[in-house]
Amino acid sequence: MARAWHLVSRPEALPTSDNFALRDIELPKLEDGQVHVRNLWLSVDPYMRGRMNESRSYIPPFQIDEPMDGGAIGEVVESRADGFAPGDLVSHFSGWRDEAVLPAKALTKIPDVGAKPETFLSVLGMPGATAYFGLLDAAQAKAGDTVFVSAAAGAVGSAVVQIAKAKGMTVVGSAGGKEKCEFVRSLGADAAIDYRAGPVLASLRDAAPDGIDVYFDNVGGDHLDAAFARARLNARFALCGMIAGYNSREPQQFRYIIRMIAMRVTMRGFLYGDYVSRLDEFYRDMGELMATGKVRSHETVFDGLEKAPDAFLGLFSGANTGKMLVRV
Amino acid sequence: MARAWHLVSRPEALPTSDNFALRDIELPKLEDGQVHVRNLWLSVDPYMRGRMNESRSYIPPFQIDEPMDGGAIGEVVESRADGFAPGDLVSHFSGWRDEAVLPAKALTKIPDVGAKPETFLSVLGMPGATAYFGLLDAAQAKAGDTVFVSAAAGAVGSAVVQIAKAKGMTVVGSAGGKEKCEFVRSLGADAAIDYRAGPVLASLRDAAPDGIDVYFDNVGGDHLDAAFARARLNARFALCGMIAGYNSREPQQFRYIIRMIAMRVTMRGFLYGDYVSRLDEFYRDMGELMATGKVRSHETVFDGLEKAPDAFLGLFSGANTGKMLVRV
Q: Domain Enoyl reductase (ER), which positions (chains A, B) (predicted)?
């Protein structure tokens, strides 16, 4: 019997395991044009928190008592569709479960570029492309810039650090705790800020005494305010996420936002979805950066479908270094 | 004896008349290349509040016990410089005083375009150009957009309303009190919000039920948060000022800033100074809008040099409709 995680209640603040239930699901009989997939890897991502609220955002909310979904890598076990054969590795969006029957158009075959399959949920997948286009397009970062990136040990942040270094930028990354800061430095960052050790603003002043040209925001809150305070003339901020606010209904407080005027800061929200038409460009450039060893994939793996909610909740307590994945 | 207003102490929060003193000043003997000017009109502007703090911003702070300066229109009384003769009307930056001796290069002759001289401190001056380039360049506003502008009865805001209407946009302006809202509507705004009558967000929802494409911010605080809450896809925000924060050391609170991501909002700080190289374009277009009656100048006038601090303080209590000026 196949199984899938269901959302059984909407979290008010930080979700708990009570919000989720693993239930048997009936797989439909395979019909023409369809493929039966067994999942190998599931992605859990901070943006999924937004889908647990009732209100519609850029992506519809999860429905109560329905299976959840998200990025996944699977292996074809049976196919009644042209172009797919048993053993093929595919990426698709029916995660949070162990098996799925899907129309062929919902699947993308993973290209054989010498990368591990799970890399397509990490630096060669949505987090990597988010980092790539957020940094180079939304923030218009270029060689010589000083880039500040928050959650630099996370899936997106760790890709931002590596891409920025590969492109000739100076990078300051923030992360929680000594070990993660060590990891951020190992990615090539010029400096790492431990946001648990003291106020972000003071640390950023020390790490980038001449200020910052680019801020890649995954966090919001104190980090964003510190970036306002330290922005140089014509700085560009790309807003990717604000994990500090996902589980809170309190307003965020900014003491330095007014500096946006004097420093002519441009701040822009963006989504991965805005760039899917440019993925070829990403695969080409990122493939080369990986082939030359300038960018590597880093993952934290939870084993077993049963662990999917723990992996997801771990995103909010900082349990992951690099991309958080579930191995089914 | 010439007189000038001096800053005698730095205000902590809202300035008071105690922070200023009107003192005699010694005018230097007129030398070759210099012009003696008698001021007719002085400008007082919200940005001057920032110059009363000690910290350096995009413009140096006022010095304690030194004459203040700012935009002014004067008449030449004596000239030892080529190109200037008694009776010429000139604009310059030695305001907050009745007379000044200045090098010729500090003066600009007012062109004879049929406008009253004080218009060059208003819609044909810095506030008008700020409105023009902020709306059309920083916010990239275009025909068909729904534009929200705060402090819409003020010098910059009232110009934004008129330019936006002349360019085919739908305009919602906010102002404090019934009378000012009436004024905003008289400028052509499709709707006016009285921010003193209730929460800005609820009023904006009523006034622009489909949301806003552009926000021209003069205020920050609740207004900016309401704009975040009501931003449509790809909305553009131009940050011109945040008067709500000028006299406060408290952080500003934003509940809806996270919507910048889902709505891909671009927010940009800008200054008048960024556009001085494009003033020709402004004079051409704005001159035509004025000639055809689409844009008019509106001023609130305080009479007498003695009243300059009162006029300035009035900016923070909403004493002005249109541009606040001092007639010397």
A: 16-326
CB contact (8 A) between residue B270 and residue A264: yes
- Distance between CA A135 and CA A271 in Å, rounded? 12
- Tell me, yes or no, if B178 comes closer than 8 A to chain A by beta carbon: no
Q: Distance between CA atoms of B163 and A170, rounded to whole angstroms? A: 42
By the 8 A CB rule, do B196 and B227 touch? no
Tokens for B215, please give them. Answer: 């926000």
Q: What SS3 class is residue B22? A: strand
pTM above 0.80, yes or no: yes
pLDDT one-digit tens code per residue, B20-34: 999 999 999 999 999
Q: Which domains does chain A have, with CATH numbers?
A: 2-122+297-327 (3.90.180.10), 126-273 (3.40.50.720)
- Cβ–Cβ < 8 Å for A232, A212: yes
pLDDT tens per residue, range A58-82: 788 999 999 999 999 999 999 999 9
DSSP A207-252: H-TT-EEEEEESS-HHHHHHHHHHEEEEEEEEE---HHHHT--SPE
Residue A245 pLDDT > 90, yes or no?
Answer: no
pLDDT in tens, B175-202: 999 999 999 999 999 999 999 999 999 9
By the CB < 8 Å criterion, does A221 face chain B? Answer: no
Nearest to B163 by CA among B282, B266, B270: B282
Chain A nearest CA to B261, separation (Å):
4
Q: Which tokens go with B273?
A: 């100074």
User: Whole-angstrom Cα distance, residue B196 to residue B178?
Assistant: 9
Average pLDDT over residues A166-184: 97
What are the structure tokens assigned to A175, written together? Answer: 């992360």
Q: Please tell me the distance in Å from B239's CA to the nearest CA on chain A.
A: 6
Reported as a pLDDT band with limits 50, 70 and 90, residue A56 is confident
Show which of residues 269-288 on chain A sit within 8 Å of chain B, judged by CB atoms. 269-271, 274
Q: In a mutagenesis test of the B interface, which of A57, A58, A217, A260 is the best target, namely the one with the most B β-carbons within 10 Å?
A: A260
First vs last C-alpha separation in chain A: 15
Indicate the average pLDDT of chain A.
95
Residue A255 contacts B where some CB pair is shorter than 8 Å: yes
> Which residues from chain B sit within 8 angstroms of residue A259, using beta carbons?
269
Specify the DSSP class assigned to residue B277.
Answer: G
For residues B158 and B320, the answer to whether their CB atoms sit within 8 Å is: no
pLDDT, one tens digit per residue, over B116-154 is 999 999 999 999 999 999 999 999 999 999 999 999 999
A135-146 pLDDT, tens digit per residue, is 999 999 999 999
Structure tokens at A311: 């992996």
Q: Judge whether A145 is closer than 8 Å to chain B, CB to CB.
A: no
